[in-house]
Design goal:
Layout (H helix, E strand, L loop, with lengths): L3 E3 L3 H11 L7 H17 L1 H11 L13 H10 L2 H19 L6 E4 L5 E8 L2 E5 L11 H14 L3 E6 L9 H9 L5 E3 L2 H10 L9 E3 L4 H10 L4 E2 L7 E6 L5 H12 L6 E6 L2 H15 L5 H11 E5 L3 H11 L3 E5 L3 H4 L8 E4 L5 H6 L25 E8 L2 H17 L3 H12 L2
Parallel strand pairs: 1-11, 4-5, 4-7, 5-6, 7-8, 9-10, 9-12, 10-11, 12-13
Antiparallel strand pairs: 2-3, 3-14
């Protein structure tokens, strides 16, 4: 059972430092393995991708089976229930409605001298969407399909490719295929891990190269994205899932414990943190954690996460709790306080903020609408959630009239001369001299 630690105590200060330094650098051994995989895919293409897929996922998979066929989509549609389709359509509608508000417009500014400047917003040509296998396909991560696929569609990306590890029999879970088809993704390849990322970044004989790669994954997927970043755009370098709940005496200990466990069951590296102004609430949450933990199928994973990365911290007051939240810059921040809307303007760093006792983080994972691909490991200080803008690029537009150039000529030439770039200045002077 977790014990409450006073934030201002020596132990509390040590925890704060640990949380501030939780960004995980790439493991050297993992980096070497991934570099070798990327090299193999770059040099041997389909052959390397198929070898890795057979070794780790589907031993009997043939090259011609790697791309999901129309028949497989049709079979998947026949396998899912009406209840699933109802939920799927609700989630699609909510996520679409939210992300449509993110779309950016091109714009122009005009000056009296005839100069026009502006920004042109265009989508990238292609995007690769990575979806983890989910325990060999038995727990399909449908939400990952939607959260990556819908914003890319709204951005206007013409070519969207989904990759996901197959089960041992070479199949993809029906629910995942149906979700992809419902949002217009019809090009799905049965391959995963670092070799799938390499295939998307460099292309193979079968899998086209893309401009942007998004989606969660294990350390090998994350490291592969890190290594191809620059050649392609990626969404983010993601670490283990994390939640921080700020609560005062009005918080419900059962709700808080449930939300901490919802993060802890992800994996043994997940972080579940509570900062509360009430020592009594902290004790009640600890008791609830123990009680609820016993009922979870993934209780061993959750307990390990709580043992290694769980924390109940007692703040002196709400001001200190908010200060800690901003300092930690968590992926998911829950405000289970008496007036969360009063606190919200003071929050500066968080991937997503959940307000009130009846807003569990799980709602954001699935059907609330905002994206659940969020910055972790403290990167919420500098990064944002995945969104439509991830799939957009901006080009500057500049148009000068003769008069506009005459007006600016001296200024341009003065700065060019200062920087020692004679040809820059001459490119203006030659135009000024010509009547």
């Amino acid at each position: 059972m977790l014990e409450g630690i006073k934030a201002s105590s020596e132990q509390g200060k040590q925890w704060r430092q640990k949380l501030l330094q939780r960004f995980v650098e790439a493991d050297p051994e993992c980096s070497k393995i991934v570099a070798d995989i990327i090299h193999a895919v770059r040099t041997r293409g389909n052959k390397a991708v198929l070898e890795y897929t057979r070794q780790f996922d589907a031993p009997e998979l043939q090259l011609e089976q790697m791309k999901v066929t129309e028949e497989e989509f049709d079979r998947a549609a026949a396998e899912v229930s009406d209840e699933f389709m109802e939920t799927l359509h609700l989630a699609i509608q909510r996520i679409t409605t939210f992300h449509e508000r993110e779309m950016e417009d091109s714009w122009m500014l005009t000056r009296e001298d005839g100069a026009i400047t502006g920004r042109m917003v265009r989508p990238v040509d292609s995007a690769g969407l990575y979806v983890p296998g989910g325990q060999g396909g038995t727990t399909p991560l449908v939400s990952s399909v939607l959260m990556n696929g819908i914003p890319s569609a709204i951005a206007g990306v013409e070519h969207r490719i989904l990759v996901t590890p197959p089960g041992r029999d070479g199949s993809i879970n029906a629910a995942l295929l149906v979700a992809a088809k419902e949002i217009g993704i019809t090009e799905v390849y049965k391959t995963g891990s670092a070799w799938a990322i390499a295939a998307l970044a460099y292309g193979t004989e079968s899998i086209p190269r893309v401009d942007v790669i998004v989606g969660p994954g294990n350390q090998y997927v994350t490291e592969a994205k890190r290594q191809v970043m620059g050649r392609v755009r990626i969404d983010m370098i993601a670490g283990p899932s994390e939640v921080l709940i700020v609560a005062d005496e009005s918080g419900d200990p059962a709700f808080i414990a449930a939300d901490m466990l919802a993060q802890a069951e992800h994996d043994s590296q997940a972080s579940a943190l509570l900062v509360t102004t009430s020592k009594k609430l902290g004790s009640l949450v600890a008791e609830e954690l123990e009680k609820q933990l016993q009922k979870l199928p993934r209780k061993d994973i959750a307990r390990q996460a709580l043992d290694n990365h769980g924390l109940i911290m007692i703040a002196d007051d709400l001001d200190q709790a908010i200060e800690l939240a901003n300092e930690i810059a968590i992926e998911h921040l829950e405000l289970q306080v008496e007036d969360p809307w009063l606190v919200l303007p003071r929050i500066r760093h968080a991937g997503a903020v959940f307000l009130g006792n009846y807003t569990p983080e799980a709602a954001g994972d699935y059907v609330a609408g905002p994206n659940h691909v969020l910055p972790t490991m403290g990167t919420a200080r500098i990064s944002s959630a995945l969104g439509v803008e991830t799939f957009l690029k901006k080009s500057s537009i500049i148009s000068y009239s003769r008069q506009a150039l005459l007006d600016d000529a001296d200024h341009i030439q003065r700065l060019a001369a200062l920087e020692g770039l004679t040809a820059h200045g001459q490119s203006v002077a030659i135009r000024v001299a010509k009547g």
